[in-house]
Amino acid sequence: MDSTPRAIHSNRLQHLPIEILFEVFANVSSNEYPVLLEVSKAWHSWFADRIWNSIHVTLSAQRQILIQGADTGSSFRATTSFAVLNNLHRIRNLRVSYDALLVMMREKDVWPKTEKGEEKEEEGEGTKDRVGTGEEAHMSLGDSMAQTLSLVEAPLPHLEQLQVDFNHSESTPDKSTPLNLGPFLDILKRSLSLQSLSVKILKHCIGWEPECQAQLLMALPPSLERLTLDYEHLYPTLLSEQVHNTEERLAALSLVIEGALSQSKGRAHYKLKSLTLFGPRVNMVEDLYTNFLSKQSFPSLDELHISFRRKVDIPVPLSPCICELISKGCRQGWKTLGFKGRSRLMNSSIVAAIFDQCPTLENFRIEMCTEFNSSQVQKLLFSSPKLKRLDVCPRSLARNQSVEESLMLASDIDNDWVCLGLESFRCLIGGIPRPDVRTGRYDNEPLESDLHVSKKYTMQQSRQVQEKILA
């Protein structure tokens, strides 16, 4: 069979294994082959009683839900929206662009009007055919759509993972128009078993304000365990804009959140354990800690991951916010801390805040430029009795002589360690013999930056030496 989805037809779907991780792509692209419309039409036939593992719905550049090779008219969009929404209660893993979600909801509102005339005619013809052939009667289009309208408001008991990408300006045609989060918040409200939520704000999204984050945080379901907020793609746009009256905006936002908290009757999110922030903003971190993580109704998180995938200038006020989040964001102490990125975020104040978490720390990972030095890594090992995994790997590995201070020195490895349960140890080791490109011999002295050839001394070689020393 051809490997492209074009070879999948409705009459072959019954032969697919039920364990398959089924992803439906509704996107038009020159280099992609989305699944044909027959897949959507066949949902009721062979998989009506099954639980769908995964579905991915997005938009084309024309802001339409499309499948390659099919009609792009309103009837097709209605059919696709009908198939997605009518099976939403069977899906475990849903990834959707917000534009697609809004289009589906809009098409849902016009189903009874656009299909009313055709529905009676098709129902009559279909009944005659079924009587003549003796086939079992199936649900008519009108009854099926009526059922879908009820399913749109029904709980989603199987949805465990949800990723929403706020992408284009389809939802906000005018910059003065606030972002309509209604359909997204409605899905959160109906998701009784949601465990993981990922929200990505792309640079073309218009109208995402701190108030939107407040609405999102207030709508988190009690079953949620992992929350990811990704502002990375929005970050360059924010840096290029002049934001005025920041203190007034944050004060007004705090009032909005406090009012929402009072109206929520103190609903607790007891299961939230992991928080991941990509490209965090100052008001984002302050909002998270001041109005949510510090509340007694909020749980003690176990994991905190902060990442800057792009190299941007970190705002000066962000470091104190991160320190406060590390020091006070978890009342019982963090079990996992992770930092990754190309920007220099790890200053001395954040390093000091991390050392306060040593008694409870089990997993610690740094992959960015940091002010950690060899003695501090050794101190971390000595002060963390529960530590199981330690990764300290600067991003600018062996490309600059200045990172030598960030590496652990071989002389510190012989010191006593308290963390006897350490299972994984990855740390670049300096102060060991390595080739000098000028003489071809091995020295303990660091090489000059202009003569330091990275391929002569790589991370893998450092790990091999480390393993020999530890052995």
Automatic annotation (TrEMBL):
- For the F-box domain, which residue ranges apply? 10-55
Q: Which Gene3D superfamilies match?
A: Ribonuclease Inhibitor
**What are the start and end residues of every segment in region (Disordered)?**
112-133
What Pfam families does the annotation carry?
F-box
Q: Known InterPro entries for this protein?
A: F-box-like_dom_sf (IPR036047), F-box_dom (IPR001810), LRR_dom_sf (IPR032675)
Name of the protein in question: F-box domain-containing protein
Species of origin reads Entomortierella parvispora
